[in-house]
Amino acid sequence: MKSVALSVATVFLALSACAAYESQPVGMNHPANPRAMSAPEGAPSKTLAYTRNDMQAIAAAAKEPGEHEVQDAAGAANGQKTVVGEGKVVATVPSANQLVVEHGEIKGFMEPMTMGYRIEPASLLEGLKSGDQVRFIIDVPKKTIVKIEKLK
Fold this sequence. Notes:
The protein has 152 residues and is of the alpha+beta class. The protein contains 3 helices and 5 strands. It is 22% helix and 26% strand. A 5-stranded mixed barrel has the order 1-2-3-5-4.
């Protein structure tokens, strides 16, 4: 009998405490308000993934004075199928088969920058970590790193 009375008292206290709570009205800037304005779309990230269209847009924008220059059309026009670069690993992104690398100039292809590159095959990422100095080969038409080696 005592346990039933204790259970009833516990339920009563729990329910009466909840009944006193009143939620505040949702303001116009609150994401749960159905009449709230949606957040503006941010600029797409250019840190990790580039599609062919992205590269073309970057190349067009890079022609403005003072900007870095992407010369992928020049590399392809010269018949280059691959180019070699050296740099430092900033991050590995195995889930996206990508490597973010800070590299020097890749002659006839790209100015010095930090950029994410696709990796084929994904096994090239094994054993790489942030801070590693590497030499890599990029397949120019695919814009993909196809070979990579650690430098000492």
